[in-house]
Amino acid sequence: MSTNPVREIDEASFDAEVLEAKVPVLVELTAQWCPPCRALAPILHKLAEEGAGRLKVVAVDGDRCPAIARRLGIRAFPTIVAFIGGKEVARHVGLTTKDKLLRLIEGGGLPGGAGRDRAPSPP
User: Fold this and answer.
1) Active site residue 65
2) Is 37 annotated in the active site?
3) What are phi and psi of 24, to 5 degrees?
4) Active-site residue, from 9, 18, 27, 34
5) Cis peptide leading into 42, omega within 30 of 0?
6) Pick the catalytic residue: 6, 29, 37, 44?
7) Mind giving me the DSSP string for 74-85?
8) pLDDT profile of the chain (123 residues), mean per 10
């Protein structure tokens, strides 16, 4: 079995891994106690494997990194936040499908794209 392609990041690595990334990034805000987060893990794993080099998938444990959760205005786990060029373009709260996650990146920030899941970046 391969290593997990979804890297866990923290406050020290967030800016470099997400905001300075050269590819789109899906950030999962998760918690160990969260059953929907555990159900989402294999979906994110597959997406990270299939998108290697074109897409980055990272995880942030909201309990261990509360500053990131506050910075992003996270109110529930799991929350997936899509970033392109260092800017938040879309987000989704709760369990979802691989196709829906791809649409966050593909349609993020574009009219008619991921509009209903799109949320403005917190101040």
Assistant:
1) no
2) yes
3) -60, 150
4) 34
5) no
6) 37
7) --SSSEEEEEET
8) 83 97 97 97 95 95 96 96 96 95 75 39 41
